[in-house]
Amino acid sequence: MSTSTRLLHAAALGALVVGLVATPAAAQHGPAGGPYGDRAGIVDRPIPTVGCFRRPSATPGASEEHTIVSGGLNRSYILHLPTDYRPGRRLPVVMAFHGRKGSGTQIEGFTGISALPAIAVYPQGLPGAEDKTAWQGAPYASSADDVLFVSDLLTELQRTLCVDPARIYVTGKSNGGGFAGVLACRLSRRIAATAPVAGAFYAGGEAGCDPRRAVPILDFHGTADSIVNYEGEPDNGLPALSDWLSAWAERDGCDNEPETIFAKDDVTAFEWTGCRGNATVVHYRITGGGHTWPGELADSGPGHVTQTISATEVMWRFFLDHPLCRG
């Protein structure tokens, strides 16, 4: 089956998903000031979408920069709606986070996420140490509350677009992948699943991680990653991938030992099963893989790039299989 056929098939499946019922009253509340937030304004629960049947806030088929105010700061993001976006059809959201020094435009270019039948969102990190953009959880990030930014941004998207609240997904590369892990800890009841690539999972960022539901995790990492060592970097607060995965398998209540589910050329995939709810933990190990996005469409980083799989295609299938379950 061709990639385009798979994507069209995925769109048909996504259109069948029934979202939460929208309530007009919810439209009267701003991103951080609504009735769903905790004391910090972070919303960790599904909320009604009220943006269906409204004129879209972006041009379908185009990638446009937008801004919101979060935590008293102007924050920006790139938004891409499918060409066939219809205000009455609820769509999944795929939010992708760039790595340190990166940008939303950059990760959009090498992932191809904007070609998916979903609302694609590329938030922009703020400058941290050495004036380089970064995300919360890393020691070099700014002091901004990026989790609040994501919460506010999701609320804004649900206010202005036809979002399926049960199909909100996150991914990211490097520091952005590590932040996707932080979001799995902090927004577990709002984000359906997460799929980091070459993630920098700083222990400090996930300290005290106690998700309120079992979160489906899909991870990709190269064994020859020269930026984020596959075996970990204890002096820098980075765990070995095996330890990070085992910790998530334990949080999700999975079986102790994974099963091999895919093996071809330079890629082997392992899955922890028996998890609570509809969760699972899956890891794609790329032998000899660098700090790169599998199946990249443009330069994504140093080292070997596998074309055996496309991370974007694999995660899209994974996302479709894991809508939000409140368990």
Set out the fold topology.
Layout: H1 3-16, E1 63-70, E2 73-80, E3 91-97, H2 104-111, E4 119-123, E5 126-127, E6 133-134, H3 146-160, E7 163-173, H4 175-186, E8 193-197, E9 217-222, H5 241-251, E10 259-264, E11 267-272, E12 281-286, H6 311-321
Helix pairs in contact: 1-6
Brief sketch in words of this structure:
This protein is an alpha/beta fold and 327 residues long.
Q: How would you explain this protein's 3D organization?
A:
By secondary structure, the protein is an alpha/beta fold. It contains six helices and twelve strands. The protein has a ten-stranded mixed sheet, sandwiched between helices.
> What characteristic shape results from the CA principal axes?
globular
Overall pLDDT level:
90
The CATH class is Alpha Beta
What assembly state would you assign to the polypeptide chains in this entry? single chain
Tally of separate helices: 6
Care to count the β-strands? 12
CATH architecture group name: 3-Layer(aba) Sandwich
* CATH level-4 homologous superfamily: Alpha/Beta hydrolase fold, catalytic domain
Name its key features:
327 residues; ten-stranded mixed beta sheet; 6 helices; globular; Rossmann fold; alpha/beta; 12 strands
